[in-house]
Amino acid sequence: MPETINIEHELYPDAAQRSQLEQQRQMACAVWRSLAEQHARAAPGHHNEPALSRARVRTLARRAGWTRDLCSATLDDLVAVFNRVARVGPVPAELPEDQALRISARPVCDFAAELGGLETPVAAPLFLLPSAAHRAVADWRGDFFGRLDLQQNTLKQAAVAGNSTADAQLLTHLARWISLDGLARAAPVPVCPLIKLTLQESTRLRWAPGPAGPQPRLIWTFRVDDIAAPRLTGLVAADPGLRRLWTTRSRRGLTHFDNPMLGQWRPPLPAAPPGTLRRSWQPGLAKLQRQALLVGHHLRPVQAEAFQYLMAHPELAVEGLDLAGFSRTGPDYLAWLDWSGALIQHRYIIALAGLSRRLAVIPAQAGATRTCSVCQVPRAMHFEGRQGRCRACGAGNLDRDDNAAENLYRLGQAALR
Ligand SMILES: [Zn+2]
């Protein structure tokens, strides 16, 4: 079976869409509770009893009216998840909070996705997808809109020829798809020279806990068709950051990929001047298009260069991101990770390297930043701004990111030995 990777990003539903998504979520929770109750009654004390069959749940679903709010992909997935849980142990009474569930979804343009059960596309930063995934989505879209064009042309010909059924169908077709016309005509997406992916039809929605309550996120699955072989040798260690997107260390020494937007980016992002927007306008989409412009112009080239450099090595050591830690100490960095697509890039590199390279993910708790890279005494570094001095051996003028990259290189070598 070919390998797959998942890519997750934020969703920005408007208030009405959000309440519909929340309703779907409530329904999924209600279905789970009902399944859990039935399971408990059917198998008291036996947690590995034969699980509920899909057909039985479908019957239940029709009777209970679940299908009104839940698309069949979600319902089937809910049952599959439930059965997996029931097979290995006691079933929790409630659906786990951040459990991802299948949803029918279409990446209709770079700024929005259509989701099952919602009438209008939901704003989503699909332009942040790494290049091979962006290209796979563009290929999918090309096929999809190609089929739509074909259908529409057939209907147009029949309508012009006086076919009244086709005439009515053409009206529906135009009304359904016309609003996406402008958005879907995106700039051409280049082919990634290293990776070839294909979008799979198994998208999931996950509610991630956040400071402002649970936020919906979309997870796309891609089949990995091809990964280029590494062209260099040895290990590369990579320290992700805001000031420098990546600081890397290999046998060739240190390499920096500086953030070209440094000093230009402030959270929260500036909004349109107050009083300049009418209610019917779409500030959400406008914000995404502006973000796409800045990310595309400033960050894409550096991200692509860093990605190619990292994937050129057969061994990779990378620091894991401690998101909970950032939310306590550096909320700016957390906002940056989502806005810039850096979180997506980071996870993408780990997923691909895990398939094709020797990979060590060094936990943030390993202390790569505070350990002195000269004498290796933990928590010995004292920083003022970017520069550090070691309290143990006295080494001075150590750059914060370089010091971390040196430590990651050493930890990576030890982990992969
Ligand atoms: Zn030291």
TrEMBL record:
Protein name: Transposase
Organism: Deinococcus marmoris
Origin: domain of life: Bacteria
Organismal lineage: Bacteria, Thermotogati, Deinococcota, Deinococci, Deinococcales
